[in-house]
Structure prediction request, 361 residues.
Amino acid sequence: MDSKTFRTEYMVFGFALVTLAALTMWWSTALVQWVDGGYARQLLELEHEALNRVVRQDPGDYVLRPLPHRMGCSLAPEAQGQLCPPESVFNELESWRERRTFMVQGELGLLMILLCIAFWMLFRLVRSERRFAEEMSFFLGRVTHDMKTPLAGLKALLQSLYKGRVPEEERQRMLLLGLEQVAREERLVSNLLTAQRMRAGGQRRNDQPVALVPLLERLVSERNLLAHGEREYRLECADNLRARGDRDEIQSILHNLLDNAQKCGATRVHIKTSLCGDLVRIDCLDDGEGFPPTEADNLFDAFVRSSTDSGASGGGVGLGLYLCRRLAREMGGDVKASSEGLGQGACFSLLLPFAQEEQTP
Prediction:
């Protein structure tokens, strides 16, 4: 959304706010005049009743009061006073006026509160729609770029292999490079599907005890194979350590954390596990660019990337770390990030509930 449209929206809301204030003042004046008019009409009716009693020469419960009074008709010269209803009638009339005024003010205040709430909700809705449109525009641009780049590389690789331009000694390395690009595409699509499931409120499968040693060994082996010597992944894992969660989602979280290390230029990644109370901790330490410590929590927001990420190392749509934390918290754990600063590397920690070993009878 361009700045001209943005200014137009605020001008419309400003005009609506001024109009609402003007209408409120007009309604307030009109309602107060309506109450005063009703009060004046009842006084006039009492005065007519007093005049009729003078004509009939039958004052009844009306009494002669000194001048000046709020209303009344003279039975005698003005110096002697006016014929007026009992004081209780005037008190009841005054009470009616106060009640009506309070009711009108209360209704007007309630109407103003409801209008302000509706106005504020509409304003927030418009801002939310504008932010959503901007995020979707950014998101589609990043997804298109992230899907097009590996596809272009795969196309060039397949063309080179088909035409026999790749030397035999380079063929295996090129095939591994192609497999890495395919795996990257697969993880991107998986992240998009996971984000859609979360947005739609889909339910996750039941958690089960997951043995971490075979899962992490397979993960590190695949990563070292596809890295073809450009990166090194090392594993330090305690034996018989089990976590409770969904195996596929744990694997997805770890892949996203390692992808993040790769995007930040890491050449060595050390994965180690430990037991912290009733939680299993999996640390992914890398020697990449790192980040300012103040950005640690912001990294897990959707569509947010580190300020040090220029996109040259793979970029991303800003969903990976967001999904990591969401998935971990759904399983009763969390994901945390720490770094001593730029150029100092980073540590991303996955925390999962510890699963006790099943006791055999």
Notes: The helical segments are 3-56, 87-162, 168-200, 212-227, 247-263, 320-330.
